[in-house]
Amino acid sequence: MIPTLNEARNLPYVLNTVPDWVDEVIIVDGRSTDDTLRIAKALRPDIRIVYVIKPGKGAAMKAGFEAASSDFIIALDADGSMDGVEIGAFRDALEAGADYVKGTRFGPGGGSADITKFRRFGDGGICLLIRLLFGGRYTDATYGYIGVRAESVEKIGIDSDGFEVETLIGIRAHRAGLRTTQVPCFETSRIHGTSNLRALRDGIRIFVVIVKERFRRTRHAAS
Q1: Do the Cβ atoms of 84 and 19 come closer than 8 Å?
Q2: Environment class of residue 181 by beta-carbon count within 10 Å: exposed (0-12), middle (13-18) or buried (19+)?
Q3: How far is CA 39 from the centre of its chain?
Q4: H/E element holding 4?
Q5: CA–CA separation, 121 vs 136, rounded Å?
Q6: Do 14 and 80 touch, CB atoms closer than 8 A?
Q7: β-pairing verdict for 111-112 and 186-187
Q8: pLDDT by residue (tens digit) across 20-75?
Q9: Distance from C-alpha of 199 to C-alpha of 217, rounded to nearest angstrom
Q10: Reduced to 3 states, what is the DSSP secondary structure of residue 51?
Q11: Distances (CA, A) of 90 to 28, 36, 130, 139
Q12: Count of C-beta atoms within a 10 Å radius of residue 107
């Protein structure tokens, strides 16, 4: 599942790295004005396209999860920074029994050619905060390369629209007691275009989400 917004120049790389054994590829498009959808169809005629009106990566992730029909759902970005070859590691972890698989750039075997010192410091602080408030032991809180069993999507319950969705999913997975595994990933730089991520703005949104989650009762607790 790949959220897109004007990623026409990056899609040839991204789709060509997706392994042939993947039986369902979903593009969740947020009103692209370039050739994103035409190129997606040309490269992979069997691709499914889901249109989302509400802006934001969280809204796209929610729509993609709802539309997916496979047992395992693996989400990656459309900017070329994530290698589709690594989908195999997510599949293997899910087949081995994990409910939620978190890609990590900062655990053993991971890495990044794109992260800035400010964002790395911020991610470390977010990981520490998640550990202190929820007990979750993640080495990377903000990376969007993830895999989820379809039957576990409802337990996560995405209700956030922005880039903070990656952190929210990790917290919800932990609070729901999902069997979780981290797999190492290497992040390269975006190939073309400019990211919509804004470190300070989105960092504040992540902090707000964490605080709200701290006081949110889980479904188990509410019952």
Answers
A1: yes
A2: middle
A3: 22
A4: strand 2-4
A5: 18
A6: yes
A7: parallel
A8: 999 999 999 998 999 999 999 999 999 999 999 998 899 999 999 999 999 999 99
A9: 29
A10: strand
A11: 20, 26, 23, 16
A12: 16
Tokens of 195: 């990211």
Task: Say if strands 146-149 and 72-75 run parallel, antiparallel, or are unpaired.
Answer: antiparallel
CB 48 within 8 A of CB 28: no
Return the bridge partners of 103, or none: 183
Cα 33 from Cα 60, distance rounded (Å)? 16
Q: CA-CA distances (angstroms) from residue 128 to 39, 121, 166, 187?
A: 41, 11, 16, 22
| CB-facing half-sphere around the CA of 98: CA atoms within 13 A | 22
Overall CATH class of domain 2-218:
alpha beta
Residue type, 119: R
Whether 190 shows a pLDDT value over 70: the answer reads yes
Q: Say what the pTM is.
A: 0.88
How many helices (DSSP H) and strands (DSSP E) are in the chain? 9, 9
Residues 82 and 160: beta-carbon distance below 8 Å: no
d(CA 200, CA 65): 28
Q: Which H or E element spans position 59?
A: helix 57-67
CA pair distance 181, 99, nearest whole angstrom: 8
Q: Which tokens sit at 166?
A: 């990656």
For residue 2, list its beta bridge partners: 27
Sheet holding 146-149, edge to edge: 72-75, 146-149, 100-104, 180-184
135-141-147 Cα angle (round to 5): 100
